[in-house]
């Protein structure tokens, strides 16, 4: 019984140690995900019971603010809590305030931004307000993909001093067995997300609804004709031709089967039956 009691105590202590490790890991993760102040950010610094030390200012291009009594304080690149501690330590070490309680509020985000261009509903520059912003978060800020937009995204930027160009297949980000962390990458300052237009196929001739149409993934010739309302009474399947531009710019004329796939830019022509 005594041995069992000791084993139970050890188990409880072990779980407590694991809980402490988990809490420490969560705290470290939260600290890593904290927003980093950057040039252009507007901040307000408040010191409890010291209204004369309240300051509202913009972070300079060099990451510095000019603070009363302390002079230039470099907070660029720091998280909010680290910037608060830096100012508090300066006030305490300079014997200006005995126990300073410093609060820094981020009023306007300008230092860390990313751009979204192309076929989105609200293209433009958007602030990176959290360090864990991902491609889908940035795309949501831009209002999502427009009706003319496709599934292919291109992310450009810098990582570790080297240029980054990453092609992202948007549907695969949400696929059941996808590694979302690998495809839905973290956004960093200066990144540009490009949303390409949707692929288009053109259909004309003896069809009910001729004109351009969105080419869905894996679409066959039969599906294209169905999307065009089908053939007219004068149309014939034997008169269907697909005009496709090759890599050298020359146009090839083909007579594909109905279950053959079509490609972006294809022109489907349905001839009139002679009988």
From TrEMBL:
Domain Polysaccharide export protein N-terminal: 31-106
UniProt-recorded Gene Ontology molecular function terms: polysaccharide transmembrane transporter activity; porin activity
Species this protein is from: Roseateles saccharophilus (Pseudomonas saccharophila)
Domain Soluble ligand binding stretches: 200-254
PANTHER family per the UniProt record, alphabetical: POLYSACCHARIDE EXPORT PROTEIN GFCE-RELATED
Pfam families: Poly_export, SLBB, SLBB_2
Signal sequence coordinates: 1-22
Top-level division of the source organism's lineage: Bacteria
Family: Belongs to the BexD/CtrA/VexA family.
Membrane topology per record: Multi-pass membrane protein
Subcellular location per the Swiss-Prot or TrEMBL entry: Cell outer membrane
Keyword Cell division applies: no
Name this polypeptide is given: Polysaccharide export outer membrane protein
């Amino acid at each position: 019984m005594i041995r069992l009691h000791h084993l139970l105590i050890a188990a409880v202590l072990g779980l407590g140690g694991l809980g402490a490790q988990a809490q420490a890991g969560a705290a470290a993760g939260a600290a890593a995900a904290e927003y980093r102040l950057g040039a252009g950010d507007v901040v307000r610094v408040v010191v409890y019971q010291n209204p004369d030390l309240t300051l509202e200012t913009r972070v300079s291009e060099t990451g510095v603010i000019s603070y009363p009594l302390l002079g230039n304080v470099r907070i660029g690149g720091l998280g909010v809590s680290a910037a608060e501690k830096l100012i508090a330590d300066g006030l305490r070490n300079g014997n200006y305030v005995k126990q300073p309680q410093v609060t820094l509020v981020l009023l306007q985000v300008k230092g860390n931004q990313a751009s979204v261009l192309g076929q989105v509903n609200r293209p433009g520059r958007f602030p990176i307000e959290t360090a864990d912003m991902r491609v889908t978060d940035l795309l949501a800020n831009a209002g999502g993909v427009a009706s003319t937009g496709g599934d292919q995204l291109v992310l450009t930027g810098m990582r570790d001093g080297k240029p980054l160009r990453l092609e992202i297949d948007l549907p695969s980000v949400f696929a059941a067995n996808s590694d979302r962390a690998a495809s839905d990458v973290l956004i960093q300052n200066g990144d540009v997300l490009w949303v390409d237009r949707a692929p288009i196929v053109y259909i004309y001739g003896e069809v009910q609804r001729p004109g351009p149409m969105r080419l869905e993934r894996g679409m066959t010739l039969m599906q294209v004709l169905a999307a065009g309302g089908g053939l007219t009474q004068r149309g014939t399947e034997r008169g269907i031709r697909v005009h496709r531009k090759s890599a050298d710019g020359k146009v090839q004329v083909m007579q594909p089967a109905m279950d053959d796939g079509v490609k972006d830019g294809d022109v489907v022509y349905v001839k009139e039956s002679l009988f």
